[in-house]
UniProtKB/TrEMBL annotation:
UniProt name for this protein: PiggyBac transposable element-derived protein 4
Matches recorded under InterPro entries: PGBD
UniProt-annotated stretches for the region Disordered: 46-99, 186-207
Segments forming domain PiggyBac transposable element-derived protein: 161-525
Comp. bias intervals (Acidic residues): 78-99, 193-204
Pfam families per record: DDE_Tnp_1_7
Domain of life of the native organism: Eukaryota
């Protein structure tokens, strides 16, 4: 990696060159052929290309907090131009003052002995490796972006359906209906028998109770309501408030009754209950393992991540009974189910995930950190991509295994109690702030960094991507630290996006918590796939909120249309659904076409019989005759009220 110099160093060199020239001019010439002229000396000492000078100025301005501009803090462009025209003596003084002011912000690279050893005699070298051509590990293979069926998707519902396919949803319908049969026996007023041979025609004629079997259309509508509640930030609102006729959401009332929503949420299942106990002996995640693996595998089949990925953990909030519930005080939710996850550092696409089910879930003889580090990076094995870890995953063995066996480089923070770290790298006494120490061992680069903070501390980083450490004191942060800061937030940002429009609701069953987590993950992934699609006619949606709202409406609409076919649906509810779907009722359309006139004359239904008032005008809803004195002009919107 080519190191850059600052404009301060360039000016200092120019002045040194001028002093040398003056000395040469004052002395008598020896007449040697090898003597240099004044112009040649200046060109030799001060020669730098334009890119190097501009990059150096940018680095210096970033170190002082001035941004990419070459001017100092509080200095206008006019002042910066005037400073270039100052006499040489004044310019030299100003450069010296600037150097003294910014010296505390620049990185200090401390000297390290050539031979080092950790507490367990692990050998390191303080000498910087020789610069060679671009190593094979930096040649990334595979074009990032959509692949397979995701290349030409044109709408959000199509992108979402790639994850939750009809086959997957039909499996959920089958397992949920099996649970509905059991739960239905608790209700004496059930109008539908328990047998599976129900008459389809009877369901069209009689409005079924809230314990009836579910179909794929209604299941999609249920998931759509989950998404809609998340978009409206009402996932913590009670179902009573959501379905309240006065202050509730019309979409919820028009989709299904409150009792039906609660009943389906309590009864939704994702596995065969008959074989669950046998599977649970081998796998604690058995109640939702099949669904979880399908969603994760689909995510990998539809997208190739960029060259930089992040591995970290996500905590799904849950306080009920669960054999592998975790307590992580650093997380926002504190208690919940921990999921190991790998995300793309650029757009936060979830590439891989695995639920941590406690001790015994890893391969025998392999530490949990090494197991999950290798397991999470499986989608990028053999591609020379880089993965950023935190200190729970990072170790010497993990770094070598990923590099040697799977062609994956890594950068990560490291715990200071590791036996391989030299004692001098973690010693805090006498350590200067904003200083760095580098050590090397084969493909490994170890960094000990003391940040410029009021409270001293040592930060350890390990990298197989950075071949050389920082060799000059012209930057504010080491390259490894800056790269780590830029790529460490992939999973954390993904978790923040999940919380922003979360579908999670309070529940007592941990499989439902994992299911809500999958809905949130798909809600992010499908948006990224739609943005990366190459379809010419794909829908343009400005933000994620609109994406999710459009998806929720598309999932709910078929269920509303199905409810309109119920012959005994109440007038108010039918009017509500028509208003939500913006459909003109058939009766109103017929009356509008007929002009409200009947073929025969009839007596007015509101006049006294002795008056014998007759008319050809009829009500378009109740089909009653109305005379002119009882007719009122009203618009369609007011008629619905």
């Amino acid at each position: 990696m080519q190191r850059r110099s600052t404009s301060i160093d360039n000016k200092r060199r120019r002045f040194q060159a001028i002093d040398v020239l003056r000395a040469i001019i004052d002395e008598p010439s020896d007449g040697d052929e090898g003597s240099e002229t004044e112009d040649e000396v200046i060109q030799d000492i001060c020669s730098t290309d334009e890119d190097t000078v501009s990059d150096a100025a940018t680095d210096l301005s970033l170190a002082t907090g001035a941004g990419p501009s070459t001017q100092n803090i509080g200095e206008t462009e006019g002042q910066a131009e005037d400073s270039d025209t100052e006499p040489e003596g004044q310019a030299e003084d100003s450069d010296t003052e600037t150097e003294g002011e910014n010296a505390i912000d620049l990185l200090q690279v401390l000297k390290v002995p050539v031979n080092l050893a950790g507490k367990n005699k692990y050998k390191w070298s303080g000498s910087v490796p020789l610069r060679t051509r671009i190593p094979q590990r930096n040649k990334v293979t595979g074009q990032p972006g959509n692949k397979g069926e995701a290349r030409d998707i044109s709408s959000g519902i199509l992108a979402w359906s790639l994850f939750f396919t009809d086959d997957l949803l039909n499996d959920i319908v089958t397992h949920t209906n099996a649970e509905l049969v059991v739960q239905r026996r608790r209700y004496a007023n059930d109008s539908q028998p328990d047998s599976d041979d129900d008459d389809d025609d009877a369901e069209e004629e009689v409005r079924p109770s809230f314990t009836r079997n579910v179909d794929i259309v209604e299941l999609k509508a249920l998931l759509g309501l989950y998404y809609l509640a998340g978009v409206l930030n009402m996932n913590g609102v009670t179902t009573y408030e959501l379905f309240d006729k006065d202050c509730g959401v019309a979409y919820f009332q028009a989709t299904m009754p409150q009792k039906r929503f609660t009943f389906l949420t309590n009864c939704i299942r994702f596995d065969d209950k008959g074989t669950r106990q046998e599977k649970r002996e081998r796998d604690r995640l058995a109640p939702i393992r099949e669904l979880f693996d399908k969603i994760v595998n689909t995510s990998q089949q539809l997208y190739t991540p960029s060259e930089y990925c992040t591995v970290n953990e996500q905590l799904l909030a849950f306080r009920g009974r669960c054999p592998f519930k975790m307590y992580i005080p650093s997380k926002p939710d504190k208690y919940g189910i921990k999921i190991m996850m790998m995300c793309d550092s650029n757009n936060y696409y979830m590439c891989n995930a695995e639920v941590y089910t406690g001790k015994g879930s890893t391969t025998a003889g392999v530490s949990a950190t090494e197991y999950y580090s290798v397991q999470m990076t499986t989608p990028i094995h053999g591609t020379n991509r880089n993965c950023t870890f935190d200190n729970w995953f990072t170790s010497i063995n993990t770094a070598r295994k990923l590099y040697d066996d799977h062609a994956v480089t890594m950068v990560g923070t490291m715990k200071k109690n590791k036996a391989e770290i030299p004692p001098s790298f973690v010693e805090l006494r006498g350590r200067e702030k904003n200083s760095a120490m580098f050590a090397f061992s084969g493909v490994l680069t170890l960094l000990s960094y003391c940040p410029p903070k009021p409270k001293k501390k040592i930060v350890m980083l390990l990298s197989t991507m950075h071949r050389r450490g920082d060799t000059t004191e012209t930057v504010r942060l080491p390259d490894m630290v800056q790269f780590y800061n830029e790529t460490k937030c992939g999973v954390d940002t993904f978790d923040q996006l999940c919380h922003r429009y979360s579908v999670s609701r309070r529940m007592r069953r941990w499989p439902l918590t994992v299911f809500y987590g999958l809905l949130n993950a798909v809600g992010i992934n499908f948006m990224i796939l739609l943005k990366g699609s190459h379809a010419d006619d794909k829908e343009a949606v400005p933000d994620r909120r609109t994406y999710l709202k459009t998806l929720a409406k598309a999932l709910i609409k078929p269920q509303m249309e199905a409810r309109l076919r119920y012959p005994k649906l109440s007038k108010n509810l039918r009017s509500l659904i028509n208003g939500v779907l913006k459909i003109e009722p058939a009766e109103r359309a017929q009356a509008r076409q007929a002009g409200g006139r009947a073929e025969r004359v009839g007596r007015c239904s509101f006049c006294d019989r002795s008056k014998d008032s007759k008319s050809k005008t009829k009500c378009c809803r109740c089909d009653k005759f109305i005379c002119a004195s009882h007719q009122h002009t009203i618009c369609p919107d007011c008629a619905d009220d």
